[in-house]
Amino acid sequence: GAFYGAEFILQRMTSEYSKGVLAHQFQIQTGSGIARKSKNYSRTHFEFSGSVHIPFLKSQAVMARIVSMHLLTKEEVLLPAELYRVGGYKSVRGYADEAFPFRTAIYGQLDYRYYFKNAGAVYIFSDGGMGFEKKITLNGAHQQLFGYGVGLFLPSKIGGMVLEWARNLQDRKELGRLHIRVQNSFISRNHTF
Q1: How wide is the angle at C-alpha 62 spanned by C-alphas 190 and 184, nearest 5°?
Q2: What is the CA radius of gyration of the chain?
Q3: Who has the most CB within 10 Å: 15, 21, 129, 188?
Q4: How far apart, in whole angstroms, are the C-alpha atoms of residue 150 and residue 145?
Q5: How far apart, in whole angstroms, are the C-alpha atoms of residue 77 and residue 147?
Q6: Contact predicate 12/26, CB 8 Å
């Protein structure tokens, strides 16, 4: 079979988050496609993300981010690889990376940061979200997620390192998770323990 589709991305980012800098990020991504096999299958997705970094006093800032992802199709059952994966360092910290598959998901992140260098910071955070495995209905089956923790960002000439300790509300006896991320323009490595 063959697949035909198109994707549209609109993105704006003012600058990297750092001490004393008011910055924001905005992205809309949408696309649609049709797979031609014995039966035609269509998929359409719409994703939105926005964030703002607001400095205050001399070395502090608040960062807020919201993300919304929607997959539209007439199909009732989708493969796990087709669904949005939520959880971990990219979305709701305190859970295993990409632990929850959803057809529709929305989540937010809130950080309070203290900058000890121009870009180096320690921070506390809380993340929360909601995901739907099927279509969105008022009383439909959904899952709520909430994570919290502390983090450290260390800049260097070759990139940055992020170290975060996070837990979720369901953690009762576990110590939480350690998210480690090293990134620059050439590499991006992520590990969760």
Answers
A1: 30
A2: 19
A3: 129
A4: 17
A5: 29
A6: yes
- How far apart are alpha carbons 164 and 90 in whole angstroms? 12
The span from the CA of 66 to the CA of 105, in Å, is: 11
Would you call 105 helix, strand, or coil by DSSP?
A: strand
Give the Cα separation of 146 and 100 in Å (integer). 13
Which residues does 39 contact at the CB level (< 8 Å), separation at least 6?
none
- Do residues 98 and 86 make contact, with C-beta atoms less than 8 angstroms apart? yes
**The pair of three-digit structure tokens given for residue 98, joined into one six-digit string:** 């990409």
* DSSP annotation of 92: S
- Strands 84-86 and 60-72, by their bridges, are unpaired
One-letter identity of residue 98: E
* pLDDT averaged per 10 residues, the chain (length 193): 87 88 95 80 92 95 97 86 89 91 95 93 96 79 93 86 92 86 63 48
| HEC assignment per residue over 63-89 | EEEEEEEEEECCCCCCCHHHCEEECCC
From the list 38, 35, 36, 28, the residue with the least C-alpha distance to 7 is 28
